Amino acid sequence: MRRASHYGQYEIKLLDVLFVHPILDIRAAEQHRSCPYATEATAMKNLETEGDVTEITGQKRNKWFKFTGYLKYFDEKAPA
Asked: pLDDT tens for residues 25-56?
């Protein structure tokens, strides 16, 4: 979320959903927001380009995304 000021309204609303559901697919985002699939897919792609979400399945279809920009704060650190 380094460049949040560059996000449009759809990316910002998708970020709101990702804070509650940090791992989800586009269909789930579509259901949570009642937006068209194409809108959610474009918003997710924009967030992926910025590095805030990462596609975790490696598939061409039925992709799942992880909100890495948020979940990194919950990763356990190795003791120093």
From this structure: 999 999 998 889 999 999 999 999 988 999 99
Task: Give the predicted TM-score (pTM) of the model.
Answer: 0.82
In a domain, 79, yes or no: no
1 — pLDDT class (breaks 50, 70, 90) = very low
Examine residue 80 and state whether it is found in any structural domain, yes or no.
Answer: no
Count of domains for the chain: 1
Sequence-separated contacts (24+) of 42-49 with Cβ below 8 Å: 42/10, 43/8, 43/10, 43/11, 43/13, 43/14, 44/14, 46/7, 46/8, 46/11, 47/7, 47/11, 47/14, 47/15, 47/18
Which domain covers residue 15, as residue numbers? 4-74
